[in-house]
Amino acid sequence: MGGHEWRNEYAKKAASVMSEVSYSQALNMALREEMRRDPRVFCLGEDIKESTYGVTRGLYEEFGPRRVIGTPISETAIAGAALGAALVGMRPVAEFMYMTFMMSAMDQLVNQAAKMKYMFGGRALLPIVFRTMAGAGRSNAAQHTQSLETWFAHAPGLKVVMPSTPYDAKGLLKTAIRDDNPVIFIENKLLYATAKEQVPVAEYTIPFGQAAVRRTGEHVTIVGLQRMVEIALAAAAELASAGIEAEVIDPRTLVPLDLDTIVASVQKTHRLIVVHEAHERMGAGAEIIAQVVAHAFDYLDAPPQRIANPNVPTPFNRMLEELSIPSVAQVVAAVQSLLS
Amino acid sequence: MGGHEWRNEYAKKAASVMSEVSYSQALNMALREEMRRDPRVFCLGEDIKESTYGVTRGLYEEFGPRRVIGTPISETAIAGAALGAALVGMRPVAEFMYMTFMMSAMDQLVNQAAKMKYMFGGRALLPIVFRTMAGAGRSNAAQHTQSLETWFAHAPGLKVVMPSTPYDAKGLLKTAIRDDNPVIFIENKLLYATAKEQVPVAEYTIPFGQAAVRRTGEHVTIVGLQRMVEIALAAAAELASAGIEAEVIDPRTLVPLDLDTIVASVQKTHRLIVVHEAHERMGAGAEIIAQVVAHAFDYLDAPPQRIANPNVPTPFNRMLEELSIPSVAQVVAAVQSLLS
Amino acid sequence: MSTLPSAPSINREGLNDDQLRQFYVTMLRIRRFEEKVKELFLDARLYGSVHLYIGEEAVAAGACAALRDGDVISSTHRGHGHGIAKGLELGPMMAELMGKATGYNFGKGGSMHIASLDHGMLGANGIVAAGIPIATGAALGFWIRGSREVALCFFGDGGANHGAFHEGINFAATLKLPAIFLCENNHYAQYQPVTQDLPVSNVADRAAAYGIPGVIVDGADVLAVYAATRRAAERARAGEGPTLIEAKTYRFEGHFLGDPESYRAKEEVAAARTERDPLTRFATLLTQLGLAGAEDFQRYDDAVRQEVAAAVAFAESSPEPSPDLLLTDVYDVDGRA
Amino acid sequence: MSTLPSAPSINREGLNDDQLRQFYVTMLRIRRFEEKVKELFLDARLYGSVHLYIGEEAVAAGACAALRDGDVISSTHRGHGHGIAKGLELGPMMAELMGKATGYNFGKGGSMHIASLDHGMLGANGIVAAGIPIATGAALGFWIRGSREVALCFFGDGGANHGAFHEGINFAATLKLPAIFLCENNHYAQYQPVTQDLPVSNVADRAAAYGIPGVIVDGADVLAVYAATRRAAERARAGEGPTLIEAKTYRFEGHFLGDPESYRAKEEVAAARTERDPLTRFATLLTQLGLAGAEDFQRYDDAVRQEVAAAVAFAESSPEPSPDLLLTDVYDVDGRA
Ligand SMILES: Cc1ncc(C[n+]2csc(CCOP(=O)(O)OP(=O)(O)O)c2C)c(N)n1
Ligand SMILES: Cc1ncc(C[n+]2csc(CCOP(=O)(O)OP(=O)(O)O)c2C)c(N)n1
Ligand SMILES: [Mg+2]
Ligand SMILES: [Mg+2]
Predict the structure, then answer these.
(1) Structural domain tally of chain D?
(2) Which of residues 242-271 of A touch C (CB under 8 A)?
(3) Which of A57, A177, D160, D223 could form an SS bridge with A51, CB 3.0 to 4.6 Å?
(4) Structural domains present in chain A
(5) Would you state the pLDDT for residue B1?
(6) What is the pTM of this model?
């Protein structure tokens, strides 16, 4: 069956069919659908044939060695090759196993990919997805644990996507692949296996720059990034039993950022807490607070707070590591202090 | 004359003697003094023998090829070699000509140097200075113009120093060389030649984490980073003629940050503006605002503001470039709007 | 340095008379363009970081002539010659150097970032060696599609010491991608003589580390560069993988406009100008072959000078980019930062 | 694969009987340690990303024996064997693997970051090839001081494709630094066979790109590794610069604990275990030389097993690091983040 017929059939069958999938399976669905849909889409990376976390599993078998390319341990070459391929009309999806490995490729990612369109006066399309995995919690220690969304959000020309659920993972990855800009697509170590939900088997995409309100409430706004949405929701559940209603917002994309949704929420709740796994200093929490303060200053009843990694590399010891990750208890305590 | 005698003599003669020097000459003095003082101090980099901007000029002639080492165009090797040398007891000063070139060395700078002490449980001294040059304004275009202090301030384990005057350049560089931690020492393209002042010929150092209040005032606090201190002072002068007294604070070091001085100022002025050349999004302005809001919320009469690069790569065209750099007019207008 | 081939024994590489003459004109176009750029810079009619290609013209001219439409190049900070040889027009190039709205990059790139994807010019590059993985990527794109284009990357001797060189070439070699890595060894990386940074005699010696051919050519001999590139391109199109070509060349001017050149002897430069000028050399050859005489050369020069003058006039009379452009082109579609 | 030398013709490299026996004991110490680590991991008494060195013991044991006190090594994610061979104690190593406060890194590093500067062990490393420029830097430090120490870097075949390999070795070669680059070619980089990523037959072939000697040794032959490293160290101490040694070896276990090993045939692993076990091989040699018999081997094994058991007991009875440690050691002196 050729790609086209297959697609029609698939679409017919799939309409309204849901399937319970994990976060990594959802990503796999997105890649498969997009690779079937557009022959210009291809994957490259160090681990993509075997795929330790399952995201690219089975793609090599379906699409073969020219669409699923295992590379040497050469992050600069991976990023540069993705960029060069995009310049001749391809739509690469490059994988960096751990986000820290992107440090080996920053020149190609930022001096080249992020700036190129601008430097060329707009005369280039750069439809590249740089997939990677961040987050803490798996005892990988400091060189395999770091959430670097700040670096990329600080590089104009890149979009930064951080899905927190299987549904979003699929829909946002499809949008990323169809976007004509370089996208840093950040997945999460723990969510791969732990996050599971019903996801449409059929085609859907999720636009960038639209936050999801995961829970509504009127007393405090909690913005959580990626896995911290879970933490925020757990804290909200706990707070609810004490009569405190927290609104939990998942920005889904950091660049572009849906500030309107956050500001509207703060205008209602008058209080803001941002929770993320990245280091606090220069983290996205600072940016979100600075923007909310600029746009909703008069609505704030208390100083916005941040809960984040306390500016330390991630320790190996699992108890210490756990202490370095924002906890439900921290969020609950912060809300209580904000309201007191 | 051996190093020791020389030093005594030098100290005697130099006491209280001042000399009018440029920013790059002041840096040169610091390097020379520290290299004479401590045989473990050495310099390496791509341009350090000839030294386009004069910072390392004459050092090769004085200290020879084992203390002033010209390297291949290999930023990863430069950073890694500095780190390795520090591990065996040396005190390297590594140069990256333009700050953007550090993107080629991020793994050694952040995965290795920044995290190493922590990963080793504290059992390592890493007395390394990574010198580089940032700032805009010289028509170098996007790949040679970017202020990346955010990235490094977001990497626990690194200190981040940004001198704005010749006096500070000398005193802070000496402190950086004597510090037992990796220090990102950011110099400024334009200040090299334009900033000149009387600097003591004798020994002095400037502690990290002590902001300088460059001008006192009671109506608004302007925090400026590096060359933006000049812009802030020019704006303050202009505002003074309209009866507005701005307090201008130069943090001098971003990590550690002298928050107390900033907070005390805001508690007096009730208004804050942060000015920097880096991109606004995720810039140091956000961090400073988030911290000030956390510590002086009740003192603020208006939302703190940022003036920064408007999230664009730096354009080549000099008029466009100029538009991308915070201007005196922008600062003046921001102050006026804050006070209105 | 190779001695001049005597006229009768020359291998024309299948090129006809006009094609041979065209080499000369391309080199001359680069030379006069660069001379004018220097003049304008010294007159403060042009600004920025400018690295001249004078002395190295045969490399770009020979290499690009061996490429076809659809083939692409990636380039360096010293990229004017590459652009001209790949067919970019002098007017928009000069306008870009002046930061004008009519430049290839609307004035937002300048000398180190000139690009024209329509011409297969994937960009000059301010970062040493960064064009190498990019060329590998273009070649990867061709290989995935199974099309027959080739990607050629110019880079300097200094670039051969950067990690991007190693990773980019190695990756291309593992997949036998249709790429050509052309090192312009002009004997200096900024102020450092190549002997100081390169612990082997030739950059081409490094080809063996990737299992690909390493070819050394006289970079002052446009035909030699053409021949080596053509063979590399054939190899690439045949699916046999990349080639590393090292063209031994010399830059007659400083590293950038403003370089005091304290690191090399004036005599060394003077000798190169006399003995290794690719234009003089090729003019002699054309004369020996009877393909051009004094009048022809005069005619070429007049035409090229006019072309350059027209480019300057175009650029100088062009408008500055509108201030709005500061915020555009960061992203596609929404277009704003 | 080299065949076993027959007893009479063996070159003892000037080593006495005890030194030869010591090779065996070191390898055995690594083997038993790693076996125990695997067991503990499968029992969930130890956690983290763990990469075992089983099968490769001769490389670390041979190489480190050729070093002196004061010499340093940098290592990889697969670093337990390097640490043991460099003289680190099993107790604090095991404690570090368990994240305990008595570990070399106070439990803050874990398997991939074990370091002990007192022993000249500059750290295992979670980043492929990152130890290479670090070793270059240590060698640079020695060279600046004019002292006679040597820095040796272990790295894998996969690491030879990273930019840090190129830059680190090239820089060391330009200054003739006292460095030894020792590639442990175990034929796989994670799941990729070396043949897929390396377009040449040997990593050592790359030495020519830096004008330094490239030496291939049988990584299952501890004496061969020792001999090659000793010669490289002599060269380095004599100011003649770095050497690239490639030890052909094989890992008997998966890439990490948990690897399903779908990328290689069980038979291949079984064959290696039979034919290329460095311990069996060296035991045979010691027996042939009359330096050890069955009882001795039993005695060694008992002693080493006891040592490992003591290390486990030490580690398991050690306290977890205090929560305060989360915020210390980010910076020196002020000590807090
Ligand atoms: C990664 C990086 N490091 C340093 C520089 C600064 N720089 C610009 S050109 C140059 C020398 C390049 O030498 P080579 O590659 O031989 O090219 P050439 O200038 O001789 O044409 C250097 C060091 C840079 N642009 N990029
Ligand atoms: C820069 C970087 N890229 C990728 C990885 C992930 N990774 C860890 S080990 C490994 C394979 C290493 O292979 P090799 O160098 O041959 O060492 P071996 O595991 O065989 O000992 C990879 C890809 C990493 N740690 N660092
Ligand atoms: Mg050169
Ligand atoms: Mg391996």
Answers:
(1) 1
(2) 256
(3) A57
(4) 18-200 (3.40.50.970), 212-339 (3.40.50.920)
(5) 38
(6) 0.96
